């Protein structure tokens, strides 16, 4: 096991180096002009040059690449170009709001998806199954933008059930998070239910289920003990892989509902060509993704002893 | 035994319960008379030399004061003393401005002071603020306002730059304000309460500068104590103090109990308040002076939220959660169809205040571009623009066609526009002829045999930006030019303009102060070449007039020169001036004494809120509608229950 | 949508059953899927005819003209749906143009994005997957490295950065010179490239895994022993065995591509010169509050029905093609 993990980490390092390089390449070329952000309406051309040098925009690519690597290792990504706040500060500030939205949404969504999938797997073929599956497919065929636009307009503005926008640190956050969480769950339930349902149905078709049934075991018992246990592997794998995205947050929801989290911070940074922030996000996102992929593999191996770790 | 479905049903029930308890109020648990503001941009800094854009300007306004300020109600705009005791005294030769400060004004209490108590404001503080603003390491965004205008200041600044570079090269420690104590002839402390500015050349616009946020007064203790954090932690003399600040979410203010004696103008009872040129009787009739004579601050607090997206901000206002708003471009047609308040808003008592902006929307043509250096081509493009369409469709009638780059009401406005019609409609035949005369019959480039192509840089992705781009494409097509629209973010378009790598760009300019010099500087050749003159316009006649007028006092002579300059711009077409937008300010019925001012934000000091009226209105306007959820929940429970029962049989 | 296959009573005079025709028969049995396939075909025909009309007519295109310019008599600006003329069936946009025509044009955009975007992604994924799975050794290492790296970068960031680059860079200058630039705008080309370059990873992984299994099949081994070239074996012997994955993935990516167009256009880096569903939905952001709901409804429904149809067909394809799911 240990050697497996070590090997995976060793493999991850060149991947992350590659990501760092691509990040630098991509965002350097794509970015606009940070100088105007910093120097205002009528900047003096000499000042502009000086600032370019200060921000390191005149150094060769390879030099900037090594600087970037150093930043990653020390976790110090410098200061935002928009307002000089240290990037670390920006992250700290945004983490709590994002997690307060994504974690409950994830748990609730996961709970609902798994329950609903088991439910329709149990009652497969009935009207409930058909309606739910149809609803799931219909649900994922609607663009997320429409959910947000209509949801905000209908539930918050027309029916006045929720605040339209905003956030509060502390227990009152519940008022503001209810609608975005609801929409997030709606968005994810469709895909998840289809996936888990397929997984469950595949399990049910296996031989051992037929054997158990012919032995006289109750259907419920089969479903909730044996099948569930065997389904747990893909379910947990899928859930684990979803975790890095909890931290990057749903930028659309955050922007429309005014949750001052990492998602909206990232989008603002992109629009303002705030390179330090964007680069930091990209590389951290990649690191998290890699870590959780390794974790998922580990869980997979633990839960399914048949898998060789070779 | 069916645990999972039951657990699931319980989950649904709990969620529903939680939802039912929710309410739409985004300010839970709030008390007192609070002003609610929504900003459409994130603020960058509370540090005065950096307050160069709307976001920072609006968050700083409640907590700071400058030497002068805009009168909150007079139109045309007028300046009145704020921290100064009276208007500055300008010397005979106009080269020196002497300002006397009010006595006994103190900064707000703050931990940066040795005993936590704010101390008295003196001329030394003005010296510090001005010097810090001019110091090279501050990179003040507004430096161009002092550049080459103050005696000895440029030498002081350049000297510091050189010495700092030398010191760092030698390895010496160089702090942020290294060398600040050096004397500069232009800034003089005459006595404890008197400050004098000695100019390098007459500067008639200087009074406006003293009312801008760049010259807010603050104590050196705050800068020393907070260092980098000073930009999040203001210490000023304004009627409010900053209580809480999250740079990506909101700023909350509470009253400054140490605020100096300052009252809402009361011209009816106090003749000293009757400013020359202010129609106070009209303002009284309009209800602005409802709190006349009351001591500032009037509110228990202010909460400013940064709502970047238009939809939620607009919905907030409609539901009454914002006290005033300039409706977003895309919602103007809904709120103000045909220039009148919509029935819905009128019924609620919302008030509408339109005004023609102090600004100009224009398309900037790069006169150094191969194609556009040909003035005939520029004139042809100008003739093919349909400004009337823009007014009718993009602004729902809420704009006037710009007959000059100067808005009406500002000295220098002249109704001279040879290359666009009186009503703004395009003249395609003339345009085609002009293009042919310029060497491109039917828009075909004789060198390549193909249609001419122009690149149009659009900034922003709003509905109206896209509509305009689409329309521009149509218009140019009619005279034979193909247009490629490039969408840019604001930093991208700024970079292109600075590098001159653009052909046509859609822009707007908002005046920093009501003087035409502010817009003419964008066409002065001294500012070309990576400067603010992005069109790279170089015209000797224009330059000569600019240099002459920049030292003249406001008066008929200068106005005549301004008019000539405007005519040159209209003839040479480095810009196609399009419209002056008519802005609307919408106010909730419970807002008091609020007259929107474009170039300054200190009018917030004079605002009051009728909290009772607000509470009553909100309860009425925002009744939750709960029945649809109940119906949905019921249907779902029915479906599950039915299936469970049926399968049991 | 699952269908249970039980076909022991086949007549004696049936034509030989290839895996493809088997799959097709299974598919046909699923009635809803067949209906969806018909719907998909209808959309395709609309897109095709729209493009044909444009080629024939030249600019300015009908969808860009206001109803008034076309000779009809309507109020300027947005009009609610009315039965006056078939053009106004879904009303007009805030600029006075026919929503119906714009939705039709959006169909063409969606198909180009879907077909070419997903097509590009599928071609890249399939080829790299084949190469990695079959040739092994360093080729496999390189391909795995490539997709691990790309998969680690947050998808949205990658798309946005690529979109900005392609738009501003030399590629766009080259593209403008082509004759077809007038019919397929630069923005559209950008989206196709962006989606193609970012969505190939899943298929690559799947194909690679499957190819590794197929390599060990007897007849493949025989082909190698016979000395056939790698390329020939990959494409003639191995590919047919993994092609079902390619088809299923194509249908999924088609849907993702269309939905990505909506988000990319919303963020301002998508299609701009011509109408698309994404643009109409993005415009709805402000139109909805003005009470103008019909462009959103029209584009939203068009998008919804097509996505639904493709999802259903994709599900049915998976059931029909994936041998493991038949009982």
Keywords:
heterotrimer, A: 310 residues, mainly alpha, 77% helix, flat, C: 327 residues, disordered N terminus
Instruction: Name the average pLDDT of chain C.
Output: 79
| Total DSSP helices of chain C | 12
Separation, N- and C-terminal Cα atoms of chain C? 14 Å
Total strand segments of chain C: 0
Helix content of chain C: 55-70%
Largest interface: A-B, 72 and 75 residues
Assembly annotation: heterotrimer
Tally of alpha and pi helices of chain B: 20
Sum up the overall morphology of chain B in one term: globular
Order of helices and strands of chain C: HHHHHHHHHHHH
Percentage of β-strand residues of chain B: 15-25%
Number of strands of chain B: 20
The span between the termini of chain B is 16 Å
Radius of gyration over C-alpha positions of chain C, nearest whole angstrom: 23 Å
Query: Globular, elongated, flat, extended or rod-shaped: what is the shape of chain C?
Result: elongated
The low-confidence parts of chain B are none
Which ranges of chain C are low-confidence, i.e. pLDDT below 50, for 5 or more consecutive residues? Answer: 1-10
């Amino acid at each position: 096991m240990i050697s497996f993990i070590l090997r995976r980490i060793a493999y991850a390092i060149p991947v992350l180096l590659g990501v760092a390089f691509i990040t630098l390449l991509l965002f350097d070329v794509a970015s606009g002009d940070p100088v105007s952000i910093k120097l205002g309406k009528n900047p003096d051309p000499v000042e502009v040059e000086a600032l370019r040098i200060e921000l390191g925009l005149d150094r060769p690519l390879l030099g900037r690449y090594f600087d970037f690597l150093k930043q990653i290792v020390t976790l110090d990504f410098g200061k935002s170009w928009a307002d000089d706040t240290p990037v670390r500060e920006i992250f700290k500030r945004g983490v709590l709001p994002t997690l307060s939205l994504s974690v409950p949404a994830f748990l609730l969504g996961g709970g609902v998806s798994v329950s609903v999938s088991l439910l329709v797997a149990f009652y497969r073929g009935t009207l409930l199954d058909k309606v739910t599956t149809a609803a799931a497919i219909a649900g994922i065929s609607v663009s997320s933008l429409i959910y947000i636009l209509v949801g905000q307009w209908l539930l918050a503005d027309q029916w006045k059930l929720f605040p339209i926008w905003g956030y509060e640190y502390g227990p009152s956050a519940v008022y503001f998070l209810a609608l975005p969480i609801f929409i997030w769950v709606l968005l994810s339930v469709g895909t998840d239910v289809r996936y888990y349902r397929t997984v469950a149905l595949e399990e049910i078709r296996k031989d051992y289920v037929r054997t158990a049934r012919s032995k006289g075991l109750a259907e419920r018992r089969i479903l909730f003990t044996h099948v569930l246990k065997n389904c747990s592997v893909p379910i947990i794998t899928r859930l684990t892989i979803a975790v890095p995205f909890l931290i990057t947050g749903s930028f659309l929801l955050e922007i429309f509902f005014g949750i001052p989290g990492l998602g909206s911070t990232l989008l603002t940074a992109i629009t303002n060509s705030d390179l330090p922030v964007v680069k930091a996000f990209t590389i951290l996102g990649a690191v998290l993704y890699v870590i959780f992929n390794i974790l998922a593999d580990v869980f997979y191996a633990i839960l399914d002893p048949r898998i060789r770790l070779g | 035994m069916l645990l999972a479905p039951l657990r699931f049903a319980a989950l649904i029930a709990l969620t529903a319960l939680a939802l039912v308890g929710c309410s739409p109020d985004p300010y839970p648990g709030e008390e007192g008379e609070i002003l609610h503001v929504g900003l459409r941009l994130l603020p960058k800094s509370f540090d005065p030399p950096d307050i160069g854009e709307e976001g920072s300007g609006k968050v700083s306004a409640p907590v700071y004061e400058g030497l002068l300020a805009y009168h909150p109600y007079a139109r045309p705009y007028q300046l009145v003393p704020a921290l100064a005791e009276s208007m500055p005294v300008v010397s005979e030769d106009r080269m020196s401005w002497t300002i006397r400060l009010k006595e006994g004004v103190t900064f707000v209490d703050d931990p940066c002071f040795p005993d936590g108590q704010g101390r008295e404001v003196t001329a030394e503080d003005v010296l510090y603020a001005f010097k810090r603003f001019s110091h090279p390491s501050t990179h003040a965004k507004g430096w161009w306002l002092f550049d080459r205008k103050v005696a000895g200041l440029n030498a002081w600044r350049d000297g510091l730059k050189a010495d700092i570079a030398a010191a760092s090269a030698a390895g010496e420690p160089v702090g942020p304000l290294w060398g600040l104590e050096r004397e500069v002839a232009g800034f003089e402390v005459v006595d404890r309460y008197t400050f004098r500015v000695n100019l390098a050349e007459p500067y008639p616009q200087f009074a406006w500068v003293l009312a801008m946020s760049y010259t807010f007064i603050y104590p050196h203790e705050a800068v020393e104590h907070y260092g980098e954090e000073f930009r999040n932690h203001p210490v000023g003399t304004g009627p409010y103090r900053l209580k809480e600040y999250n740079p990506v979410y909101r700023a909350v203010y509470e009253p400054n109990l140490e605020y100096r004696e300052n009252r809402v103008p009361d011209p009816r009872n106090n003749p000293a308040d009757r400013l020359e040129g202010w129609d106070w009787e009209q303002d009284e009739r309009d209800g602005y002076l409802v709190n006349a004579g009351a001591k500032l601050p009037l509110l228990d607090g202010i909460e400013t939220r940064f709502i970047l997206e238009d939809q939620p901000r607009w919905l907030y206002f409609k539901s009454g959660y914002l006290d005033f708003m300039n409706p977003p471009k895309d919602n103007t047609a809904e709120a103000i169809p045909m220039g009148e308040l919509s029935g819905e808003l009128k019924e609620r008592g919302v008030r509408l205040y339109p005004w023609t902006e102090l600004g100009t929307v224009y398309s900037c043509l790069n006169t150094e571009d191969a194609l556009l250096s040909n003035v005939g081509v520029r004139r042809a493009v100008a003739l093919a623009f349909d400004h009337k369409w823009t007014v009718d469709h993009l602004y729902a009638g809420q704009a006037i066609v710009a007959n000059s780059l100067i808005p009406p009401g500002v000295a220098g406005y002249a109704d001279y526009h040879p290359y666009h019609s009186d009503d703004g409609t395009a003249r395609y035949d003339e345009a085609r002829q002009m293009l042919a005369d310029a060497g491109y019959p039917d828009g075909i480039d004789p060198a390549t045999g193909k249609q001419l192509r122009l690149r149009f840089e659009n900034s922003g992705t709003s509905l109206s930006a896209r509509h305009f781009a689409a329309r521009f494409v149509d218009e140019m097509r009619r005279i034979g030019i193909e247009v490629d629209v490039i969408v840019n973010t604001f930093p991208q378009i700024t970079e292109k303009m600075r590098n001159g790598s653009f052909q046509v760009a859609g822009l707007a300019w908002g005046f920093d102060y009501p003087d035409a010099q502010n817009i003419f500087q964008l066409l002065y050749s001294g500012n070309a070449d990576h400067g603010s003159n992005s069109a790279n316009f170089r015209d000797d006649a224009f330059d000569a007039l600019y240099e002459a007028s920049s030292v003249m006092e406001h008066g008929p002579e200068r106005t005549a020169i301004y008019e000539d300059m405007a005519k040159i711009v209209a003839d040479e077409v480095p810009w196609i001036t399009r419209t002056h937008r008519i802005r609307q300010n919408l106010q909730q019925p419970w807002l008091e004494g609020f007259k929107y001012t474009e170039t300054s934000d200190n009018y917030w000091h004079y605002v009051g809120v009728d909290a009772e009226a607000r509470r009553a209105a909100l309860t009425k306007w925002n009744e939750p509608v709960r029945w649809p959820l109940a119906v949905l929940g019921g249907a779902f429970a029915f479906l599950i229950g039915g299936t469970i029962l049926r399968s049991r049989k | 949508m699952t269908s249970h296959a039980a076909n022991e009573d086949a007549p004696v005079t049936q034509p030989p059953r290839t895996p493809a025709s088997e799959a097709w028969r299974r598919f046909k049995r699923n009635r809803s899927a067949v209906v969806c396939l018909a719907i998909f075909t209808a959309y395709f025909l609309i897109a095709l005819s729209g493009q044909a009309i444009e080629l024939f007519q030249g600019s300015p295109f009908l969808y860009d003209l206001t109803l008034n310019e076309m000779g009809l008599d309507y109020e300027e600006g947005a009009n609610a749906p009315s039965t006056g003329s078939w053009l106004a069936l879904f009303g007009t946009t805030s600029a006075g143009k026919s929503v119906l025509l714009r939705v039709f044009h959006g169909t063409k955009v969606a198909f180009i994005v879907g077909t070419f975007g997903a097509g590009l992604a599928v071609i890249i994924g399939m080829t790299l997957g084949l190469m990695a799975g079959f040739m092994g050794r360093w080729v496999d290492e390189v391909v795995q490295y490539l997709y691990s790296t790309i998969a680690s970068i947050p998808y949205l960031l990658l798309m946005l950065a690529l979109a900005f680059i392609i738009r501003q860079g030399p590629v766009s200058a080259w593209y403008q010179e082509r004759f077809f630039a007038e019919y397929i705008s630069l923005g559209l080309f950008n989206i196709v490239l962006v989606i193609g370059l970012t969505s190939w990873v899943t298929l690559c992984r799947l194909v690679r895994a499957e190819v590794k299994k197929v390599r060990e099949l007897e007849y493949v081994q025989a082909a190698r022993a016979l000395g056939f070239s790698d390329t020939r074996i990959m494409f003639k012997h191995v590919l047919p065995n993994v092609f079902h994955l390619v088809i299923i993935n194509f249908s999924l990516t088609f849907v993702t591509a269309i939905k990505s167009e909506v988000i990319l256009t919303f963020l301002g880096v998508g299609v701009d010169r011509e109408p698309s569903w994404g643009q109409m939905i993005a415009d709805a952001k402000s139109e909805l509050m003005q009470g103008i709901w019909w462009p959103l409804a029209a584009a939203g429904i068009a998008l919804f029905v097509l996505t639904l149809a493709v999802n259903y067909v994709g599900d049915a394809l998976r059931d029909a093609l994936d041998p493991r799911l038949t009982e």
